Amino acid sequence: MAMRRIVRARESLGAWALLWAIGGAVAFAGQPARWLERMNHALNTLDYEGTFAHWDGGRVQMLRIIHRLKNGVVSERLESLDGSGREFIRTGSDLTCYLPDKREVLVEHIPLKSSLIGTLPVLNKETERFYALHEGARMRIDQHLTRLITVMPRDQYRYGYRLWIDRAGMPLKIQLWDARHGGHVIEQIAFATLKIDRQIPDSAFQPHLSTAGYRWLRNDSDPPKHNSLVWNALWLPPGFHMATQVSQSMPGALGPVEHLVYTDGLASVSVFVARHAQRAGQHPAVESAHMGASYVFSTFVDGHRVTAVGEAPARTVRSIADSVRAQPASYSTTLPGGSFAHAAPP
Questions:
Q1: Distance CA 68, CA 72 (A)
Q2: Would you call 43 helix, strand, or coil by DSSP?
Q3: 160 belongs to a structural domain
Q4: 146 or 345: whose pLDDT is higher?
Q5: DSSP, res 322
Q6: Do residues 116 and 29 share a domain?
Q7: Which are the contacts of 128, defined by CB distance < 8 A and separation ≥ 6?
Q8: 1 lies in a domain?
Q9: Is 93 helix (H, G, I), strand (E, B) or coil?
């Protein structure tokens, strides 16, 4: 999930925090898309508290999630149970990240529709062009009857999903997988305990630690600037489009950082463009790394560091970053349907 923000506080807890299952009297539906609709509705509207195991790149972490919807306002708390003491508390669009190992608190705004439990597949007529849905056999997981729903990418630019969903619409287990390499599992979530529809008090969303002596950092989005140049990717995979373009003030940056988000509705790639101080004769290195399920690629363009990160194949992330350029504000490279001018990666 690196550098969706300059400070990757949430990355250490994984970009995925999904929910476990409850029994229910709702009959099984026959259409895979309806399973996904029911799942997302249940995850966003129920009040729950649970612990889960997050497997990512061979490392297993235990985490605890609390979710509440009260008077139309979402409150969430995600905390690590691995001894780091990290806590992430969200109220509406305000997110506060408590990082005792760094003695820092990071405060930022997130979209109202986003969540600490991550983004799960939602298919519509547009995304169905790039993903195929398959409904598998019923099976029992921890005494819960579930149905396996597989989301299969139609090309090499995105990953797929496997979801074991119970009758109430809650996922017992979820996997991110690479269809190109024999179904290799990249990331997995499985819940160990869950309490549903319980009375969750306001105190559940207060930090457990004292922040005396901590350094407070804030990531703020600046108002759009009417610049003569704008940064944009000149190539995107089929179906991807720009969903976000903001300027942000970030700790340690030399100036405003341009944050671009490209998505196909399921997969997403974030791009950060920051001014880079470069000495005469210096040639900064191009860097890349896998950080759990995320691939990170960093390069340099016209005195700026361009960093792209996404839960997508390396080819997708790298090609988007390599195509980022500053263009006149009036110049558009998009074609009808959201595709970009290049038909193949640069």
A1: 10
A2: helix
A3: yes
A4: 146
A5: H
A6: yes
A7: none
A8: no
A9: coil
Q: Domains in the chain: how many in total?
A: 2
* Cβ(187)–Cβ(53) below 8 Å: no
Do 124 and 265 touch, CB atoms closer than 8 A? Answer: yes
- Residue 91 burial (10 A CB sphere; 0-12, 13-18, 19+): middle
Q: Are 95 and 86 in contact (CB under 8 A)?
A: no
Range of the domain at 106: 10-205
Q: How confident is the model at residue 7 (pLDDT cuts 50, 70, 90)?
A: very low
DSSP secondary structure letter of residue 194: E
3 occurs within a structural domain: no
What pLDDT, in 10s, does the model give residues 221-246?
555 455 556 899 999 999 999 998 88
Which helix (H) or strand (E) segment is 309 a member of?
strand 304-310
- The CA angle 45-107-219, to the nearest 5 degrees, is 115
Q: How far is CA 285 from CA 34, 253, 301, 305, 321, in A?
A: 47, 18, 12, 10, 14
The full length of the chain comes to 346
Provide the 10 A C-beta neighbour count for residue 76: 19
